[in-house]
Amino acid sequence: MNKSKNTQLELNLCLEDENSGHENKILARDFPPEWQLIPLKNAVTYIDYGYSHSIPKIPPENGIKIVSTADISKTGELLYSQIRKVEAPLKTIQRLTLHDGDVLFNWRNSSYLIGKTTIFEEQSEPHIFASFVLRLKCDEIKSHNYFFKYLLNYYRYSGIFESLARRAVNQANFNKNEVSDLIIPLPPIEEQRKIASVLTLIQEAIQEQENAIALTTELKKALMQKLFTEGINNEPQKMTEIGLIPESWEVVNLGNLAKLKSGGTPSRKKIEYWENGSIPWVKTTEINYDLITTTEEYITKEGLVNSSAKMFSKGTLLMAMYGQGVTRGRVGILDIDATTNQACVAIMPNSEDKLSTKFLYHYFSYHYEKLRNQGHGANQSNLSSTILKMFPITFPKIQEQLIIINHFDTLNLKLEQSHKRITILQDLFSTLLHQLMTAQIRVDELELSVLEKQIKE
């Protein structure tokens, strides 16, 4: 297998295209001569299937924790907090007990998720693994488990597993033999360790930002609870239909404080209403507690004129009146002039000197569950302008509103910075993962001090 440098070495990953009869080359790269191309089974000591079981509605008191496909995240993290328990025979537990460093591979799932790979780390109580998961035990002389994790997840991100898997209804799968025979590129063990170390460094930085987001989000929830029930002036409280509020705050139905207008949808049968449109058109799925800066679809001036769609100006508060799942009741603020569909309602305070749009945005965010409980409908609990107009709004004088808004804006800025940082780190991870796994760049060529600085900035 060791050939002259830059000799074309093809991974034997190909799939017969049933429609065309042509062979699709899935991956073909120039690899360094010191890299091996070998069947996966030659880099591990064993591969075994997990335990076939059904999850009981009530977890058994003396059961054992079992890692299932749902416990492996899309990015290859093992979500320990959600792992459930089952009852299993003692022999099964003895045979399938997981050990620190075991590689877990999801061999059956939807085509997009097949191939999710993670590493089990030692826990305080024993764990086994489920039937749609394969356990791979790396040969420590030849292969590094974290390199394996990143390599197999790279195959999934690249669509290789999706292309190679056998298809069934809503499912795709490999069997153990097919996984065993998969040809993989294997650098020398020390290079594997270094590659894994670099990629783990980035993943840990991403996790640090995710932890910061979780902490800030909890802080924001606690602050909302305090400010919307106690205010900022340490004054006595009074009971209202919406709960306890500061004594000086007013309680007024939304309909007496703001105008509400819904949008509309131009006819889909009229291509001239949509083709080459330049007017942003917001759908409920695009309302998600943030500034709305762009839209998936645009309509034309003709579509605007010949429909019930309306133009709303930048700074307008929008709410999703109905939609699947958690969509109903969410709010957002336009950062552009835009139209909306009929499932969105625009809420425009009569006077910003009395009730701030941004205060209302935070108020509705806090009262999300109360809002959703107001809805009605046969298939989904819809809100309506009529219902919303009757919803009670509690609010202080504008000066206090602005102070409250500033508190939330400070936390929102922290969240925004963390989200941006995660995006940058994820892009860096994706780029390096591709370059390192295909030997486009060698790990020893990286300036690690510069990389570490880039990660920590």
From TrEMBL:
Belongs to the type-I restriction system S methylase family. Keywords: DNA-binding, Restriction system. It comes from Rippkaea orientalis (strain PCC 8801 / RF-1). It holds the Pfam family Methylase_S. GO terms for molecular function: DNA binding. GO terms for biological process: DNA restriction-modification system. The keyword Kinase does not apply. InterPro entries: Restrct_endonuc_typeI_TRD, Restrct_endonuc_typeI_TRD_sf, Type-I_RS_S_subunit. Transmembrane segments: none annotated. Residues 84-211, 246-421 form the Type I restriction modification DNA specificity domain. This is Restriction modification system DNA specificity domain protein.
